[in-house]
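[Q] Does anyone have a clean structure-token version of this?
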Amino acid sequence: MTDPTDPAGENEAKRLEAGRLLFAKECQFVAGAATEDMLPELDLTEVAFAGRSNVGKSSLVNALTNRNTLARTSNTPGRTQQINFFNLGDQLHLVDLPGHGYAKASKQKIGIWTELVNNYLRGRSTLRRVLLLIDARHGLKVTDREVMDMLDVAAVSYQIILTKVDKSNQSDVKSLTQKIEAELAKRPAAHPETMLTSSVKGIGIEALRAELASLAEEVG
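[A] Here you go.
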């Protein structure tokens, strides 16, 4: 429990409250872009959710915003086939990206998604950070590192978010986190802290809200 007499604890309490207030605001779908020319011109800070198909991007967006159906979820990998933009209280845009690494889609469709996402990530001036979601049961894969390489080259800040941590034992999650953070220390655009989450259990949701609220405040 936070000690109110402790300055560090008091600051953390303020961060958590700022996150709670931000994500209590109305969150609305703004636009969906299936091609680069459909990308909307927006002036709010953007935070993008990226990751392999079925890693839990839509579930995490729903958990953060306390809405069950804001971002469509599915047990079928590759369901999100466009970039979806959501306006959170006129302070922040949440951007749900198509999953990468889904091998069962046609090569043509995978190529279109990959080009769309990469062009968005490289050229979006309002993009403040990419949250790269990694399933805690599987760790980093080749496709994840390809995205990280591209973001490093483009100098786009990104942060690793472990999902589904409730489905792995604590020691495995701790070991995975240490390995990932050791790798991140060698990557120029990576945020040093890995965050642990579970959309089902609510683990890490408050802390992630606070982190995203701080990004909105830095810019606006």
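[Q] Thanks! Anything notable?
[A] The chain is about 40% helix and 20% strand.
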